[in-house]
Amino acid sequence: MSLEILYVSWDGPGQDYFESLFGPIFSRLEAKGILVRVFRVGPVEATGKEGATMAYPRRLRALGLPISFLRAVWHLRNELRSHPPDAIMVRSSIPALVARLAGISTEDCPLIFDADGFMQDERADFAGWNRRGPAYQCLARAEAWAAGKATAIMVRSEAAKKILLERARPKISADKIFVTTNGRDPLEYFPAEPPGVRSKAPRLLFAGTWGPQYRPDVMLKIFRLIEQVLPGTTLDILTADPAGAGLAIRPLPENERRRIFIRRLSPGEMPAALRSADLGFNFRTPVLSTRGVCPIKTGEYLLSGVPVLGNRGVGDLDRLLVGVEGCHLMPDFSTESMASASKWFTEQIWPRRNHQALALREAGLRHFDIVQTVQNYADCIHHGTMANLRKARHPHQNGVRAVADSKLNPLRR
Question: What is the distance in angstroms between the CA of the first residue and the CA of the last residue of the chain?
Answer without folding.
Answer: 24
